[in-house]
Fold:
Amino acid sequence: MATIQKKYEQLQTILGGMDRALVAFSGGVDSTFLLKVARMVLGDQVLAVTATSETLPSAELAEAKALARSIGAAHRIIRTNELDRPGYDDNTPQRCYFCKTELYEHLSALARELHYETVLDGSNVDDLGDWRPGRKAALEHKVRSPLQEADLTKDDIRALSRDLGLPTWEKQSFACLSSRFPYGEKITVEKLKQVDAAENVLRSLQFTQFRVRHHGDIARLELGPTDFERLFRDGLIEQVTQRLKALGYCYVTLDLEGFRSGSMNEPLLKRLRQANDA
Structure:
C-alpha cells in the first residue's frame, strides 16, 4: 500500500505540473480515476470529453455522463467517425491505430480551440504488455498518459478508486465494440448493432463480466466466474440462446476459458511469439 500511495502522490505531482487539461473520458475504470484526480488537483481547469460513435457500447454513454456529473467535472460529448476512416473497417491488427488517430485528431483540435494545453488518456502500465497500436497514435498527437507516467497498474487504480469512493473500482473493463470481431472480418454498422444488442441482453439479465465475440453467425460468450455459474444455476441458458438467436445468430457458444480482456489478440500474439522463436 505504501508503494501505491507513492504512485498516487506521483500522479498528483504530474497533474499539478499542468495548467489546463482535457481528459479523454470513456467512463471506464482508468479514465474515471484519472478524471477524478485531475479534478481534485486542477479544479475547473479540467474538461472531460467523451467520443460517441457506432463503436461505443450504447450503455456506456449514459454512464459516462452520470460519472462526470458525480465528479463535478465539465463534460463534452463529441462525435467521431471511425468507420469513415480508410483502413478502419478492414479490421486489420492496426485497427486501433486508425480509431485512436480519429479520436486524438478531434481531441487535439478541441483542445486548441478551447485553449487546453494538454490532452490526457487513461492508459496504465498493464496496457504496455498487450497489443496496443493505438499508442502510436497517442505519441503522434502528443497525448500524455499520466497513469503510465506514475507507474500505476490496473490493480493499483482499482484499489485507489475504491478509496476515493468511485463506483467504477469494480467495473469490468470494456473496449470498443469493434474488439468483438476477429481480425480480418469486415466491420459494419449492422454488425456493431448486433453485438451491442447481444451484450445488452446479458446486461439486462444482470450479468456483470462478459463479452459477446462475433464469429459470423456464431456468438461466442465469454463470462466471468460468477456469471459462468449463474448461466447454469439460474437456468438462463435457454433464455440467452433464444434471445441471441432472435438477433440473427445461428449458434450461441460458451467459451470454456471464460472472460478475458483482449482475447481477439491471442492468435496475433501467438503468431508473433512463434515468429520470434523461429
